[in-house]
Amino acid sequence: MDAGLFGGTFNPIHNGHVGVIQYVKAHCALDTIILYPSALPPHKSNVNLASAQDRLSMVKGAVKHLNGFQVSDIELQRQGPSFTIDTISQFKSVFGNDTRFHLLLGSDAFFDTPSWKQARQIFGAVPMIVMQRGERTGMASYASFIDEHIAKGYKLKNDNIFVHDGLFPIRICNVPRIDISSTQIRNRIKSGKSISGLVPEYVETFIRTKDLYK
Ligand code: ATP
User: Which residue ranges have their beta carbon within 6 Å of ligand 1?
Assistant: First the structure.
């Protein structure tokens, strides 16, 4: 089985997340995508962070009517900050050898990976699927970024996949551009604006009922 791993703060999950993972599932031959909210995002200041349980509930509600998506609380169960390298190891030991994992990252998160714990080991642990976000970055820019900040020796194959002799491939996926962020959602709520159409209906109702992000 091929499974995508899609982690995030999901504070809250929005239609950008849901839209791009549906595209990736359909176009990257994945049997399932597992969404896992982070407990303590090591990279983000936790301004106005909804509780882990609320974020988990919103993620579950957002994908419950979609086929082939699962939600895991694996990072919420662990103590301390959530590091991706540990999460990948844990998923591998829980699912066993029959599952091939692929890590899904928005391009902003991908460009941040050099600052992550054991970054190079992550590229030695799983193939990556990078979902282009915002302005499109050309393959030449990806190539120089990978060469300078990830590892020497990656080569571009088939227009959008970087392959390496000792590390896993990095595939750049041209997902539909959906300019929504959780920050935008939280800011709109704070200033009394509607978030209708920007988050799944379940999430909109959940936020309103629980009075989140005010
Ligand atoms: P915030 O605005 O609070 O920083 P965010 O909208 O970036 O949040 P996260 O939960 O941090 O959402 O994102 C989880 C993952 O989803 C990251 O890999 C991020 O790059 C990706 N992602 C989020 N929104 C989009 C989008 N609109 N298009 C493509 N990828 C996205």
Answer: 8-11, 16-17, 20, 105-106, 108-109, 131, 133, 178, 180-183
